[in-house]
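Exam revision sheet. Question 4 asks you to relate a sequence to its structure. Input first:
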Amino acid sequence: MTAISPNPTKPASSRMDDLAYILPMAVFLGLLWAGGQWPGFFVASCVLRTFLVAALIVVFWKRYTPIGWICWWLGIAFGVLGVVQWVGIEELLRTCWPNYPRIPASTSEFDPHTYFTTPPRMWAFVVLRWAGAALVVPVMEELFWRDWLWRTIAAPNDFKLAKVGEWDLSAYIIVALICTSVHPQWITALVWSAAMGLFLLWTRSLGACIIAHGVTNFLLGLYVLLTGRWYYW
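Answer key, structure tokens:
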């Protein structure tokens, strides 16, 4: 039975609404873990998670919060700063504290040049992985972290009673910490997650957060391809 919302102008959330946010993330993390556990499955897991997560987002699209795109241009600027922060902090840590404890990675440093026997196959995989990181992952993660989880913590009885970007100290801290926990480079990820939370509070724009996340991931992919530092991917 669907709960009756105290706010008659805003429909109450249902279990299917929760599932719409949780399932794409669960599929993504499950396949990410499987690809790390069985190296022979790594390429297939990347392909599967990109297409399956994209398909789930399309299927559930009507259940998501309508995405507002105000301050989208700030998302571009913040995304550029995001990749500078990510690479800058991580490279500084690797220089000053080479063996700092990292969260065990679900994936290893995968160099497609050593895996694929022909350039067309290698570049097909690289483009797909890059597109997944820049287009699919930002939508999935921002919907999960800074839409559903944030609002669920702020309004545990019904996340739809909380607004996107509504201030809640518990939500800000918990979302940053849990988001950090799924990234091996946890110190870098913690700074980025905390900054993204502040960006959400500042703009109140889920669309700006998606653009920022996408720009950071796109530029990080470009950096990896130009430098060969595959540990970022």
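Marking note for examiners. The CA atoms of residues 18 and 156 lie 12 Å apart.
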